[in-house]
Amino acid sequence: MNCKRIIPDAITSCNLLCGSISVYLATQGAFLWAFIFILIGAFFDFFDGLSARLLKAPSPIGIELDSLADDITFGLAPAMMLFCYLRPILGWWALIALLMAAFSALRLAKFNVDERQHDSFIGLATPANAIFWGGICCMPYAMLAYDWMGWCLLGLSLVSCYLLNAEIPFFSFKAFKKEKVVIISFLAGCLIILGYCIAKAIIHHHIEFAFFSGTGCILWYVMLNLLLTCGKKN
Length: 234
Known about the structure:
- The structure is a single chain.
- The protein is mainly α.
- It is 76% helix and 3% strand.
- It has a single domain, classed as CDP-alcohol phosphotransferase transmembrane (TM) domain (Four Helix Bundle (Hemerythrin (Met), subunit A), Up-down Bundle), CATH 1.20.120.
- It has a two-stranded antiparallel sheet.
- The protein is globular.
- The model has no long low-confidence stretch (mean pLDDT 87).
């Protein structure tokens, strides 16, 4: 067995383990920690591909394992977080949130066979979707003071299912040279959002506001890409 191939696969397995822990923590109502393990999983997800390239040890098994791990960490985990977050308000209707896991799997399968997605994405990437929902589920239940807010979040989860598989281009940091102005604008907006959320967290003594910055940044990312898409069509 090629020892070099073990390292990327081991890192990918750490990603899957983080996703599994996140699912368990979500069922216990520990949403903040569940989100933290999604973020740790994203860290491993970044480095498994990087290590495979540096070691020159890509493998078909690694590609399949990566998709399986990503669906657990960025598909099932945020879907389970949202289900457990909404169930006290919406009852078993909250099961609809689990559709995100299925649509995330479809998005990952399409990514594996789509030759157009080397330096950009077609549809919202699963890690971005997971970060968006992880930040929302970390917020206190006071955010859901009215039942209709829970229904709105459930409806928004269906929008996420659409965006994951929509034929909408989303820029990637891999295309920095080609999309330099757009990416710098995105990062500048993220700094403003991050600063605002951290300030809120300090003022109100709620660390959850700091994690909500991820939701704000992904919302800005989606809006920016939709504006660019509309601009190109016009």
